[in-house]
Here is the input.
Amino acid sequence: MWAYTVGFTVLPHVGGFLGWFLNRKEIPAWYEKLKKPSWCPSRRVFPVVWTMLYTGMGYASYLVWNDLGGCSSKAIVPLGLYGAQLVLNWAWPPLFFGARNLNMALLDILCLDGLAVGTVCSWYRINRGAALLLLPYLGWLAVATCLTIRIWKDNPEHKSAKSD
Here is the structure.
């Protein structure tokens, strides 16, 4: 059973790592030049925070999967919401850093917020501990959403597509 625990816990890190790896050169080349608010966290904070959040999310998903007896019909909605929000989470870095498309990144994170809240609500009825493990993620998403909105608003020349 430990293999399932590890697998579920590691899964969110896969997309997070790929998003970073594929877009790592865009951070100093483009992101640093954007106008950002004074409360924008340091670049060094993001990998630490996302490592903790992805670990909590992954383990929480294992708890829900386990409580529902694996891939059963009861798991479709709660794990479907989780999977959908995870895909949007993974899509944000390529949209923001790779495509440099602030419009799409903003749309992505707003949809992500709704799916993440839906995930927490659906999980709360199944496993309160799992739902509580997602609360730091919701908090960080709130910061990330506000930051995305602020960057979108303050950088009108970068809203729609990649340009050098």
